[in-house]
């Protein structure tokens, strides 16, 4: 049976075997920015999921760009080596395409881990002063971030480039620029967090300027044959904030600059956001962008059922489906989706005999028994 969810899709120089993407999910478990055994086990199980591509969590381009002290970084030889060990371990057990999300938290940096409350950690308690487009705190009661100078922006662009070069050296198949969820590049886009009066603030064109400069520099540093996408928050869910019209304008510019997909998410820049939650609550953003660009668009957000995912693709609302929390809850989601939709999927030979007797074609192999 042919399904859209299990049909291949081409991203620049390679084909993904299906349209299921494991979305990046922060684990807050790194030590000084370095990946460790937790990441190896976490990514390893997701790499065996049968998904078409696995996107590694937001990885900071400098220490003060980490969301929490436990977030991954790729900004020196130690962080590169540690992430390389994890990537090598995953490569030994799975052929899945590996993508790295490259990020900077901006004013939302130096936060506590979610299970520790998630609030700003002051320097006196082991944190650091965040930096952002303007000296406007994320929460009114918090100390403001340091407003970045023009020299800061130039230096930071180079750090994004260096992280891109390190990702290529490690052998990642693709990278994704994080311009969503209230982190630095999204902060420049949104008038809620960007109060600058220079060439990087004010008009839509000015607010897009720094994120586009970063994207351009990264694309130039990333090999031409490798795909590179971008995650965008399509709405701040706050009156007067960043919206879908600005998102479409930004997405079209990114397409012109060489983006290979748009990952359509939302929210994160303001605690005043009023998100209307429901199944597939962000899909309409992906659909609106897809009507305006010619590159693939990824839908994400409370997509939980295989039939729901299939309908989104069949009706032309998106080209790929990204799962985050649902994949944590059920790392075998893709296997179950293939069984429900009558498709077959790649799986490790060690697991072939796990398929139910009623699904002998699930893995495209005949079942076998122990001797």
Structure, briefly:
With 371 residues, the protein is α/β, with parallel strands linked by helices. It has helices spanning 37-47, 77-93, 150-170, 184-189, 204-221, 244-256, 283-290, 306-314, 325-329, 333-341, and strands at 9-11, 14-16, 20-22, 53-60, 97-103, 131-132, 146-147, 174-179, 228-233, 261-265, 297-300, 320-323. The protein has one domain: TIM Barrel.
Q: Considering DSSP H and I runs of 4 or more, what fraction of the residues is helical?
A: 25-40%
Q: DSSP strand (E) fraction?
A: 5-15%
Describe the main β-sheet briefly: 8 strands, parallel, barrel
CATH class: Alpha Beta
Count of DSSP H/I helices: 10
Rounded to the nearest angstrom, the radius of gyration is 20 Å
Mean pLDDT: 95
By CATH, the topology is TIM Barrel
Unreliable spans are: 366-371
What is the straight-line distance between the termini? Answer: 32 Å
Strand order in space, largest sheet: 3-4-5-8-9-10-11-12
Classify the oligomer.
single chain
């Amino acid at each position: 049976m042919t399904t859209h969810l299990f049909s291949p899709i081409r991203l620049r120089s390679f084909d993904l075997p299906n349209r299921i993407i494991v979305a990046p999910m922060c684990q807050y478990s790194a030590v000084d920015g370095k990946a460790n055994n937790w990441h190896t086990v976490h990514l390893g199980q997701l790499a065996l999921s049968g998904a078409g591509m696995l996107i590694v969590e937001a990885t900071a381009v400098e220490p003060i760009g980490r969301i929490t002290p436990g977030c991954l970084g790729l900004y020196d030889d130690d962080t590169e080596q540690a992430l390389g060990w994890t990537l090598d371990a995953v490569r030994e057990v799975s052929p899945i395409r590996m993508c790295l999300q490259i990020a900077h938290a901006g004013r939302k940096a130096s936060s506590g881990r979610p299970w520790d409350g998630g609030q700003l950690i002051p320097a006196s308690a082991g944190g650091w002063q965040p930096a952002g487009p303007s000296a406007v705190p994320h929460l009114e009661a918090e100390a403001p971030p340091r407003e970045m100078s023009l020299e800061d922006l130039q230096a930071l662009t180079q750090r994004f480039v260096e992280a891109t070069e390190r990702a290529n050296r490690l052998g990642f198949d693709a990278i994704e620029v994080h311009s969503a969820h209230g982190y630095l590049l999204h902060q420049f886009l949104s008038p809620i967090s960007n109060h600058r009066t220079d060439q990087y603030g004010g008009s839509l064109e000015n607010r897009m300027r720094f994120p586009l400069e970063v994207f351009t520099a990264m694309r130039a540093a990333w090999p031409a044959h490798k795909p590179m996408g971008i995650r965008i928050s399509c709405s701040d869910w706050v009156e007067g904030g960043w919206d879908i019209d600005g998102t479409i304008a930004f997405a079209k510019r990114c397409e012109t600059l060489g983006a290979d997909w748009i990952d359509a998410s939302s929210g994160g820049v303001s605690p005043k956001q009023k998100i209307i939650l429901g199944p597939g609550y962000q899909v309409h953003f992906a659909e609106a962008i897809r009507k305006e660009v010619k590159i693939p668009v990824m839908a994400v957000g409370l997509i939980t059922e295989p039939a729901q995912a299939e309908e989104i693709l069949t009706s032309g609302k998106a080209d790929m489906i990204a799962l985050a929390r649902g994949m944590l809850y059920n790392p075998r989601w893709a296997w179950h989706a293939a069984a429900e939709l009558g498709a077959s999927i790649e799986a490790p030979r060690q697991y072939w005999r796990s398929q139910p007797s009623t699904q002998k074609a699930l893995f495209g192999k005949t079942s076998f028994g122990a001797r």
